[in-house]
Write a structure and sequence with these properties.
Elements lengths: L16 E6 L9 E6 L2 E6 L8 E4 L10 E10 L2 E9 L3 E11 L5 E9 L4 E8 L5 E7 L4 E6 L4 E6 L6 E7 L2 E7 L7 E6 L3 H4 L4 E5 L4 E7 L4 E6 L6 E5 L5 E4 L4 E7 L5 E8 L2 E8 L5 E5 L5 E7 L2 E6 L8
Antiparallel strand pairs: 1-2, 2-3, 3-4, 5-6, 6-7, 7-8, 9-10, 10-11, 11-12, 13-14, 14-15, 15-16, 17-18, 18-19, 19-20, 21-22, 22-23, 23-24, 25-26
Length: 324
């Protein structure tokens, strides 16, 4: 139709849009779109996409600076939407709070604030503590350190780390909500666990560091965040499986590359899909003993591994859409 889709020009302060983030609903179902570009944010009310967009410069005009809004997180409750924007090169996280009110021209009207989180903040996450308070967790690679901000009280706590970290993953651990802090790209073999609910009691002792046999390439959650799959860039170990709510660390050495990993619902076995020498293999690792078993898969083009009930499903990357 003539009015769907809506095509419009968005101010980007001379730059090109680099990303769009859509908020969860708030204030009777209203949703906002945040359009990111160098040095600039634009906010559009999706309930009125032809209306006036709110323009938010990130640096003073003519300053010559170039900063980049790289990551956006949302938290909504009732009529309030809170937006957190990590801006590379700024050293702060921007906080935008919308309560459904608008400017005279109809554009969404936020309350603006900034949280100092370190000059090289590389990742962030939101969580709600056991006391019900919303908190922002940020990783400063230059510290290295992690900063936790009580959003309502605008109070922050910075905790130094003993080794590099650039990323954070949140999960439910033995002590409640915990954070996994780690470097990517082979900078170090060490990751850190932070017991978020024990910070007030344990202070710096709420952080523990764990060194693996090879440098960490990346970490991804598997089995709904109960386990983490660590890929390595050195040390001769293909992957390591790390248990979230526990102390199990399972290194797995094998040739080739890893296409996927999962853990059985009872936590007793881990499964890996690996590729080597033109063949695909499904490996099973006993969590209690670390003993691996492997079998070559028939066919070709095995692309990904999935756990469906008590069964392992392996999807094939071919035109027939085959599965094993």
């Amino acid at each position: 139709s003539d009015d769907n889709p809506v095509r419009r020009t968005i101010s980007s302060a001379g730059g090109s849009p680099t990303g769009v983030d859509i908020s969860p609903p708030f204030a009777d179902g209203r949703r906002l779109a945040l359009i990111r570009s160098t040095n600039h944010l634009a906010v559009v009310d999706l309930s009125n996409p032809s209306g006036v967009a709110r323009s938010i410069p990130l640096v003073p005009p003519g300053s010559g600076a170039n900063v980049h809004p790289d990551q956006v997180l949302f938290s909504s409750a009732g009529n309030v939407l809170e937006v957190f924007v990590r801006v590379s090169g700024l050293g702060d996280v921007m906080h935008l709070k919308f309560d459904g009110s608008t400017q005279a021209d109809g554009a969404p009207k936020p309350i603006l604030n900034q949280f100092a989180t370190g000059s090289t903040t590389t990742d962030m996450a939101l969580y709600t503590g056991q006391d019900g308070a919303l908190r922002l967790l940020t990783v400063d690679a230059g510290g290295p350190s992690v900063t936790i901000v009580d959003v309502v009280a605008a109070q922050s706590t910075t905790i130094p780390l003993s080794g590099p970290a650039t990323r954070v993953l949140l999960y439910d651990g033995l002590s409640g909500r915990e954070a996994l802090l780690y470097p990517v790209g082979g900078a170090s073999p060490t990751f850190h666990r932070l017991e978020l609910e024990q910070l007030a009691i344990k202070k710096s002792k709420a952080v523990s560091s764990h060194t693996l046999v090879g440098s960490i390439g990346d970490i991804v959650p598997v089995a709904n965040g109960q386990w983490f799959l660590v890929t390595h860039q050195s040390g001769g170990t293909t992957v390591t499986l790390v248990e979230g709510a526990g102390n199990n660390v399972l290194p797995f050495t094998g040739a080739g590359s890893v296409g996927g990993a999962t853990v059985s619902p009872d936590g007793q076995a881990a499964f890996l899909l690996t590729f080597a020498g033109g063949a695909s293999h499904l490996s099973r690792i006993d969590v209690a003993t670390g003993h691996p078993e492997s079998r070559e898969l028939e066919g070709s083009g095995h692309a990904s591994l999935h756990l469906v009930g008590q069964n392992i499903l392996i999807a094939h990357n071919n035109a027939r859409g085959a599965v094993t």
